[in-house]
Design brief:
about 350 residues; alpha/beta; six-stranded parallel β-sheet; 10 helices; 18 strands; about 30% strand
Length: about 350
């Protein structure tokens, strides 16, 4: 099948609200530059990072207009000069980080289009057993969770793990991976409906944080942390929200417990109380992004039937902005996937 000269794409023209997003129908299809391939996009998925891209982030200068969407999977349709090991027809997952440039969907055109130009170094072979939708759900959310829990070896069988923001992409990924590791998972989300769905995914307990103080819930169920013993609290808290959830997270940890952080969607300069850190000998572990080995391991888990990424819904490109609005409003469980 020949490649057309123009394509449809979800394009951002300036920072602001989601109203700045437009589906254009006449964007030129990119060519296969040296060292690059052109991928026909089978599926792309949103992350909360895309909301930040639309609104604008200090210190990041986005080249407008830009096609948003960090995560994508599809089929190679053209191969540029110097590319070795890839050919037209190969099914691929794309690592969103373009070497020396930055994230696709932010610093270069991303996945919310019919075609995308990709550096060959970003390509990962996609097993036949993994669908484009499953693959596109993985990179940012599941890659982040995999590195945070597995690469850093922070969760072991029997640990009590409290996951804040458990209904989002990283949250649901963390719940699934923590259960695979044999942990007892407490999932905190913002509604009873989300709680029921998280229980269905395998969470052992759920907390509606709009109705219950999660740190008090932990202390009432597991006991108050003790300075000189290991009794009370949970072994691990996963917190990528920051803001006013930070200090209650610290109070929820048992002596020697670990607070995992990979983001700060509710604020990066929270109130702190260092007395808890030294009194209970707490560990605060940061985890940044993901690497190729995380994505390859996740694809194998999906191919083996051990992991099925949580997808809230699959939308056509024309409804993509509506899907991003659902993420902005935290009205989803799992990922929003778009099939351009």
């Amino acid at each position: 099948m020949s490649t057309p000269s123009q394509m449809r794409a979800l394009q951002l023209s300036a920072h602001g609200t989601l109203d700045q997003l437009r589906v254009v129908t006449d964007k030129p299809v990119p060519g296969a530059d040296p060292g690059h391939v052109v991928v026909r996009v089978g599926a792309s998925s949103f992350n909360y990072h895309d909301v930040f891209t639309v609104h604008g982030m200090p210190g990041i200068k986005v080249p407008f207009p830009v096609v948003i969407g960090l995560d994508l999977a599809g089929t190679v349709v053209a191969v540029g000069e110097g590319v070795v090991g890839w050919q037209a027809g190969d099914r691929v997952l794309v690592n969103p980080l373009k070497p020396g440039v930055g994230l696709m969907g932010e610093m270069t055109d991303g996945g919310m289009a019919e075609y995308a130009r990709v550096d060959a170094a970003q390509l990962i072979a996609l097993p036949d057993a993994v669908s484009f939708e499953q693959a596109a759900a993985l990179p940012v959310a599941y890659g982040t969770a995999h590195r945070m829990l597995i690469t850093h070896n922070t969760v072991k069988a029997g640990d009590r793990v409290l996951v804040l923001g458990a209904s989002g992409g990283v949250g649901t990924a963390t719940v699934l991976l923590a259960k695979l590791l044999g942990a007892e998972v407490i999932a905190a989300a913002g509604s009873a409906e989300k709680g029921e769905r998280l229980l269905a995914l395998g969470a052992d307990h759920v907390i509606n944080y709009n109705e219950v103080d999660f740190s008090r819930w932990v202390i009432e169920r597991y006991g108050k942390p003790q300075r000189r013993t290991d009794d009370g609290g949970v072994e691990v808290v996963v917190n990528f929200t920051g803001g006013d959830t930070w200090l209650p997270s610290i109070k929820s940890l048992k002596r020697g417990g670990t607070l995992l952080v990979c983001g700060a969607t509710a604020g990066h300069a929270p109130q702190e109380d260092l007395r808890y850190v030294w009194s209970f000998e707490l560990n605060i572990k940061g985890s940044n992004s993901f690497y190729k080995d995380n994505l390859e391991a996740l694809l194998q888990l999906v191919a083996d039937g051990k992991l099925d990424p949580v997808i809230d819904r699959v939308l056509p490109l024309e409804q993509a902005a509506e899907g991003l609005a659902l993420i902005r409003d935290r009205a989803v469980l799992g990922k929003i996937v778009v099939t351009p």
